[in-house]
Amino acid sequence: MDGEQDVYFIDNAVQHEVLDAVACIDAIEQGYCAWGEGRAAINPKTELHVYGDSGYYDFGLIHGAVEPMGVAALRIKSDFHEQTGLTSYGDK
Question: Is the overall model pTM greater than 0.85, yes or no?
Answer without folding.
Answer: no
